[in-house]
Amino acid sequence: MYKYGGKLSGSLLNQTNLNVSLHVRSILASRNLQTGSGAASAGNEPTNVFRKRKFIPQKPEQKAACDLPQEARVVICGGGIVGASVAYHLALLGWGKQTLVLEQDTVAGDSPWCASGLAGRFEPSYTELKLAEYSVQLIKDFTNKGLPTGWKQVGSLNLGRTFDRMISFNRMKSCGVSWNIPCEILSPEQCKEKCPIIEVNDLLGGLWIPDDGVCDPHLVCQTLIEEAKRMDVRVVEHCAVKKIRSERGKVTQVDTTSGDVKCEFFVNCTGFWAREVGTLSKPAVKVPLKAVEHHYLYTKEVEGLNPLTPFVRDFDGGIYFREKDGCILAGGFEKEAKVAFEDGFIPLSQKERVLPPDWDHFHDLLDELLKRVPALRSARLDRLTNALQAFSPDCKWIMGEAPEIQNYYVSAGMKTIGVSAAGGIGRALADVIVKGSTELDIHILDINRFLGLHNNRKFLTDRVKEVPGKHYQINYPFDEFKTGRNLRMSPIYPSLKEAGAVFGQTMGYERPNYFDQHDKKDEFGIPRFRIAETKTFGKPHWFDLVSSEYNACRERIGLADYSSFTKYDLWSKGTEVVDLLQYLCSNDVDVPVGSIIHTGMQNERGGYENDCSLARLSEKHYMMIAPTIQQTRSMSWIRKKMPNHLRSGVNVADVTSMYTAICILGPYTRVLLSELTDTDLTPSNFPFFTYKELDVGLANGIRALNITHTGELGYVLYIPNEYALHVYERIFQAGQKYNIQHAGYYATRALRIEKFYAFWGQDLDTNTTPLECGRSWRVKFNKPIDFIGRKALEKQREEGVKRMYVQLLLNDHDHEVDVWCWGNEPIYRDGKYCGMTTTTGYGYTFKKQVCLGFVRNVDEQGNELPVTNDYVLSGHYEVEVAGMRFEAKVNLHSPNLPTKFPDKEREAYHATRDKPDQADLLSFVTKPQA
Description:
- Strands 5-6-4-14-15-16-13-18-17 form a nine-stranded mixed sheet. It has a six-stranded mixed sheet with strand order 8-2-1-12-20-19, covered by helices on one side. Strands 30-31-32-29-23-33 form a six-stranded mixed sheet.
- The protein is an alpha+beta fold.
- It starts with 9 loop residues before the first helix and ends in a 22-residue tail after the last helix.
- Keywords: Pyruvate.
């Protein structure tokens, strides 16, 4: 136990112990009640052990505050700050009278002790930042109208103790240029000037963000609700949802403890309870969340404390604090969080969400607080609040339409900063519900980024111990979670691990990032499972290892595991599958059997919802290959956009887990594969960008695609899992004479960056069109079927693009000593900011840093003008890397990289830019092409 200057009284300690005792008893009592234990449990009846847990909403003791309507267009479950924001923004769009908010307790809650109140704009991604930016502006607007919010623009002071932390601050400051966030790097002395109560002896500096502020989330929530009610939104308290009904895959009705309500849309904004509310429908909606304990320390009034004290975050100490009503409110994020209710029993009331304080668990953070704010040693303690906070498996917010049921929306996982997220998320969800889309690309937060495995309770329990600590850890490149690992593994995983693979994880798949022969076995001679780490902003320790793998792919043979890629089979009895894909895809997919077509699936704005390859296996059967992160998202999009007249005729199957994908890259791959199959692999029989079914070794039924997704010669073999290990061993044994070498994700990533290949989720998103990234030749405007997004693309073709995808090669950058580009760096043209990088990496052939990104043309008044080739090529470019600018050479076309083994097929294909003999991107002339 800790004492604050001897003023933590014994009576308070005794009361705390009493509360703990009462809490333990209450939990035991509730478990006995729910499982029917009591005397029966003494007999250890197996029914108690194996009984399946089921979420049963409590029946409120009080009746609903008003009569429940029989019908509403939108039903929002949850009267917290996010639910209030969704209701408010629906009302702004004219749906106030058609919106109903249901709350099983009272709206806005009854505990103002469970939030820090930080309203800041700087978030890890542009999407999160824009949502937070709108939230802060909304709070300011309410304040200016005289509505209660508790807003104070005090700024945020972020402290750094280490060299790498200061580099991360400089990277944030550079991002601030791109994201229009004023910020300033401070010395320790300047940090002391901003906040005199802090100790700065161990600091190297800080980052000052003047536009950040603090507010009272309780007041903001009440204001949102009252404003929504003023615009005719109905709010019913003490009313719990019992069941969400659906027909033909769409929401139809919500059953509650006060009656039933017919509706078109349902929004799950229950926060801490969102995962459990997801089980109240059939099919259940998976909302991967788990609660951990989070402490807030409140002092009594501190004499002389400046009411404009900034919000201070000591990242390396894991702590934060602010001034609140003359007192200090403090908290932090420990390296390993304490999971609450691991057994799956979730409290049903807001009061039960607050647990007794755990001083033993909080003591490390308390030590850091006392070190940073010496005045706390003599401050009088008011309380330590232990409030549960729900986190997603990847430490990001969750929002969007559920993949299981159409018109069922989710917004949850706001972590500890719901007030920073609520305004923007409420607006975005309201836009999607009313208008069908939102202007901001939100795929990074979309609930479709998860699989069923992410909702596994034991997985969540394991993962969320690590998640909260990520908030304040240095955001190194290619950061990996260490929990929830060894979950999805291809059949060749053991062989790859034995070969020295160091793994990364994507969508639960263990994927080799690179291979390291050093220390690959433990003391018993068993191959280790090793997780990839970078832990630097400069030259990484794996640089030479990846260089060797890269060279093998360019000049010999590299072998890479592509098993994590999303794989679908689509087929029909008639021509329905062709009609569907022609409607969904912007390219012409009605190609000869055996062809591979690369295409986008555009939305109504022309942006990419998916970027995929389609292999036509037969007249009525296609295989789709898409990025790993598209596994849930693609299926949801196809089902949502499938015309009614095709629903009964087209079959779509996710076959991702049925096939192991091995990619062999390099100039000797045709010779190698020819030794293992009887099929003629000569270019005349099996040309580039075509498909064949092969026998390899003793195995059959292998789908071979003559592409590599990196621009190198080679093949991707989609092997039925039972044959995977056999085929892998045959390839690797036969490849020894060609000095075959394993290659990881980092090497193939370097290959595609140098070849100017755009990837969905990194370079492409729902707002990026094919015309902006040099893929106009993949859009067939003359197709007989009117595909999704055609009108938007035709309009853009007429008006010209407002941004253009480019490749930049950094000059005078020393990769040995300078900070590397890792993405989100600002780009300058003739000294003026014009865009930012998306994907970056070291080019082992160029021997330079390579940046991919978008360039804009903005005039002095801030108006965006069309971007032309001449505009791009006539500028002088610089890229700012952690505060330092480097001159850069710009490329508009995929380069032909020098190789010892030139090949006409490889040199002729340009994935990102139009081919030289085709129409220029902006000439707006369509020419026939192969």
